[in-house]
Amino acid sequence: MKYAHLLAVDRQRNQRTFMLVMLIVLCCLVALGITGFFDAQRFIDGAPAMHQLGSEMIPPDFSRWPHWVIPLRDTLAMSVAGTALTVVLSLPLALLAAPNTTPHPLVGRALRVVLAAFRSVPEIILGIIFVAAVGFGALPGVLALALHSTGMVGKFYAEAIEHVDPKPMEAAAAAGASRFQIITHAVLPQVLPQLADITIYRWEYHFRASAVLGIVGAGGIGFELMAALRLIKYSEVSAILLSILACVIVVDSLGGWLRKNLK
């Protein structure tokens, strides 16, 4: 009887999981339909234009590569600086937002709303705002990356902190440790590997996002990419894209090496 009951419970769980998966698939199909993905005529009509664009992009034109070295350097610098500023902003906000380290539940809820507000504005919109505020160059790109990513990284940090083992915290509190000592000796040592992973992944993302921010005047290789697009130099566009791809591969490889050695 007990075995039959367990089978029935397992069957119900599998049915619920199946229904949930089917609902997700249905939502995805509806979304694809709304966006016109199933309109085959649009793909057929666009095929000649895509062929023409591809033929103009090949072969890539690397004749202006010396002009891309400094913008690529600026893009890398933006990603590193934006990540550093993100960590500086995210860690204290995450400690205030996490339920087990916040000084008061209302403070935690308020900080979670603030983090949600930060990540709700795309970095390209923030880039436009900061370009208008502080002018062209890498600085508005760094500020846009940091502000947007603080909302995302702060959320991930807070979730990692929320799920730490409470026993070391209780032991430190019982020994008379201050709140600061509890955080530095009982909380952060548990989550540092996770925080490092989150930070490195975000740095990899920042490099790709920095290339896009250059399109709105926030410096970096994106500015060169936009200039080539405006002049309809598609062979140069493909060369810049390949240069960005090479840098992304290097950054991703370096990020993987850092994750391996920081564990």
What does this structure look like?
The model has no long low-confidence stretch (mean pLDDT 82). This protein has 10 helices and no strands. With 263 residues, it is an all-alpha fold. The two termini are 48 Å apart. α3 (69-97) runs antiparallel to α8 (179-213). The longest helix is centred in the C-terminal third of the chain and has 35 residues, at 179-213.
List the secondary-structure elements in sequence, H or E. HHHHHHHHHH
Tally the helices. Answer: 10
Give the percentage of residues in beta strands.
under 5%
What structural class do the secondary elements suggest?
mainly alpha
Helix content: over 70%
Please give a quick description of this structure.
With 263 residues, the protein is mainly α. 82% of the residues lie in helices and 0% in strands.
List the helices and strands and how they pair.
Elements: H1 2-34, H2 40-57, H3 69-97, H4 105-120, H5 123-134, H6 138-162, H7 166-174, H8 179-213, H9 221-230, H10 234-262
Helix pairs in contact: 3-4, 3-6, 3-8, 3-9, 4-6, 5-6, 6-8, 7-8, 8-10, 9-10
